[in-house]
Amino acid sequence: MKGVIFNLFEGFVSEGWGEEAYEALLDACPLHTQEPFVGPGTYPDADMIALVTKACERFEVTAPDALRAFGTYCFPQLASKFPKFVQGYDHPKAFLMSVHDIIHVEVRKLFKDAVTPSFVYQDPAPDRLVIEYRSERKLCYLMEGLLDGVSDHFSVAIDRVQTQCVHEGADTCVFELRFAE
Amino acid sequence: MSSDLTQRRLTRAQKKIETLERMIEDKTRELFEANETLQASNVFMSDVLRSMAGALVVTDAQKNIELTNSRLNSLLGYAESELLEKSVRTILPQAGNFRAADHDRILEEETVCIDKAGRKIPILLTTSRVRSEDVDRGYIYVAIDIRDRKVAQAELRETQHQLVVASRLAGMAEVATGVLHNVGNVLNSVNVSANIILEGIEGSKAGALRKLSDLVAQHESRLGDFFSTDPKGKKIPAFLKGLANHAEHNTAALSDETRALIKNIDHIKTIVASQQCVARPLGAKESLKLPDVVEAALDMHEDSLARSGIRVDRVYGDVPAVSMDRHKLMQVVINFLSNAIQSMEAVRGKEHVLTIEIAKSGSDRIHLRVRDTGLGIDAEHLSKIFAHGFTTKKEGHGFGLHSSANAAAEMGGRVYAESLGLGEGATFTLELPANGAQKNEAA
Ligand code: HEM
Predict the structure, then answer these.
(1) d(C-alpha B344, C-alpha B347), whole Å
(2) Residue B248 class from Cβ within 10 Å (0-12 exposed, 13-18 middle, 19+ buried)?
(3) Can you give the residue range of the structural domain that contains A120?
(4) Distance A116 CA to ligand 1 centre (A)
(5) Do A147 and A81 belong to one domain?
(6) Can you give the pLDDT at residue B119?
(7) Angstrom distance (rounded) from CA A56 to CA A51
């Protein structure tokens, strides 16, 4: 996982529970990585899992809730770091449809060794969108939070139903979205 | 704790900076190397452009020049970048345009480009389009200077023309040789006749008559006595009778010989006349009956045929008239006949037959076959016989068959030879299109 995500996580914890809490979290986790995380660096996924797991334990939140909240925190940060990817879209549907074929493609060029998930889209009606999410990392809760972030960013309510989930034995996670306007 | 925390975070920030510095250094090195590779490939690209065989022009979609290579600049006498942003029409006024439908086509044409001094330079031009997302983004023109090629083409045409003239002259020379040969033959007879006549005149006993007349004049006053009593006078009647006999005989012989002489002179006239009809303006087509042409050619060879005792068999089928150049047709026929006759003259003590066959073959071809009973042709020579300069004859008439082959081709036909081998005689065939369509020959 890229350092940029670790740093976002540091910001997320520091803002929610204080800088000391983050330092304590670092002390409590036996991380593979000794040096500090920097944005362009790539670090083991296990370190992120360890940090998230320890945070849930300390702050008494469930992992799904933590990841959802982290996703909601991440999106405006990513959007302000990479304004070009968001500009030019006035509706979340068109924007979401650009994530797989444009944004994550560019992300893999910008960040060496980045691994992004795969999205398959279905477009059944103008106000609807179906996204099938597939990733080794199984971060569908993060995905939910990111979708909430997208809804906030565009100020368009997105009603979402997850019709299947890898955590319930399915191959992929499927999100059925309905846009308010 | 708070200062501890600050210290920790400072240390971490410092470490981050160090790590990031290292990363920046690595990245810079990477970029530097990438830049070098890029520059090397740039140098290579410009070397490629410079070394290209063609002169290169690249334009934008509006056909304004964006790039030229040094070969183009030196071809047209422009300084580097002098042509940039000018319309391509400045240098390629006549280059063709693409139609919307010509998707991946490349235009190839012979056209001209205009140099700085306004001179036209002949070029071979290929034009291709720079397409992206179904729109013309620009055009690529590659021109090859073909001035040298043009000069070479002109030289080649001149050489071909000279060859055509040479082969015509060779053909005419052969006709002339044929005429001279035949006239020469007849002149032999003329000479013989003239000698016979001279001898006849010299042996005409005119001297004896003179003596007799003198004798009679001496005895003019008493001729009766002279005839009846004089020993000389008594012989005169018998002498006169002999003289009369001789004169009668001599006159008959002389008039025979003179008739032969007149006939031979007529024959020479015929030969010369047929030569004149051969020597019409070149290339003029006229409607010709093959048998007439063959008969005219036979006339020219009449004496040789007669002296060598060659029988002529004519097998003339019903064929339409052909529209041909009489000169060319005559050249081939005379060439066939003289070859046949010479070949038969070379085999003595045999009854020779010259067979001339004219026939239609299929709906669109006419054959003229000349078959002889002469030397025949060795199988290994058959295919080479029409090649330039090939001959098996001592006098070397190979050029005749070669120019016959050329003449036949120019008439839209062909010639070929057949023979069962040495001693078996040979058949030469001229095959012509029935419609007489004549190929356009190079001027
Ligand atoms: C400005 C827009 C975005 C940027 C710059 C961005 C960038 C990234 C980056 C850098 C990663 C980490 C890859 C790695 O560490 O190997 C990532 C992962 C991810 N992104 Fe995005 N992203 C954007 C928008 C979105 C959106 C809108 C969604 C979903 C609706 C999304 C879903 C995800 C998920 C689920 C992951 C986690 C990796 C995984 O599941 O395997 N991203 N993205």
Answers:
(1) 5
(2) exposed
(3) 68-179
(4) 6
(5) yes
(6) 92
(7) 9
Strand partners, B360: B366
Tens digit of each residue's pLDDT (9 = 90 or more) over B2-61: 788 889 889 999 999 999 999 999 989 999 999 999 999 988 988 888 888 889 999 998
Q: How many domains does chain A have?
A: 2
At residue B184, what are phi and psi to the nearest 5 degrees? -55, -45
d(CA B264, CA B273): 14
In angstroms, the CA B275 to CA B173 distance is: 11
Would the CB of A146 count as within 6 Å of ligand 1? yes
**A126 & A162 share domain:** yes
Does the distance separating the beta carbons of A41 and B19 come in below 8 Å? Answer: yes
Cβ within 8 Å, pair B5-A19: yes
Chain A hits for B13, CB-CB cut-off 8 Å, are: 36
The model carries a pTM of 0.52
ipTM surpassing 0.85: no
Q: What are phi and psi of B365, to 5 degrees?
A: -125, 150
| Same domain flag for A73 and A97 | yes
Say if residues B60 and B66 touch (Cβ distance below 8 Å).
Answer: yes
* Residues 6 or more apart in contact with residue B304 via CB below 8 angstroms: B181, B182, B185, B310, B341, B345
CATH number of the domain to which A73 belongs: 3.90.1520.10
